[in-house]
Amino acid sequence: MRVIAGNNSGAILKTIHDRKTRPTLGIVREALFNILGDKVVDADLLDLFAGSGSLGIEALSRGAKNVVFIDNNPQCIRIIHKNLNKFDFEVKGSAYVRDAYKIINFFANQNKKFDIILMDPPYRAGKIEKIINNSRLKDILNSKAILVIEHAKRYAPSCSSIKELRYIKSRRYGDTVLAIYEFES
Q: Does the structural domain 26-183 have CATH classification 3.40.50.150?
């Protein structure tokens, strides 16, 4: 897997090799960052269900100010640390073994806010609704923050119960769908 664009374009990322981790395909990553465009520059990002960290590393390569990587698999976090070190992103990125749902509550209690949240959960785990219906989610989003959910077309998320989280659009790439939401405080 390679970084698609930015300062580290073409560089090879270390990846995790297990059946539970599904890396985001290059065509989907490229489409995602074309959709986000300049919103990534100087943004604070949260990469939930980060896996090898390819989405967050891509964001850092494209000028993101900071990325927090969260995954509940310690092996994934070790790979992310290796990728951060490889690209000298240790200052701009931090990675933690945590539960995605609980980390939202933790960041809300710390008054930590993000401009973009990238969410690529296991397709069948039912985690999407749990996250987008967490009432504390709005407490970690800056005004005009973007939430991107990658999911299988057959497992589309239901609408969020957070009225300030507005669905913008979806784009389909084979079986993968990117659903884009915007937070209006």
A: yes
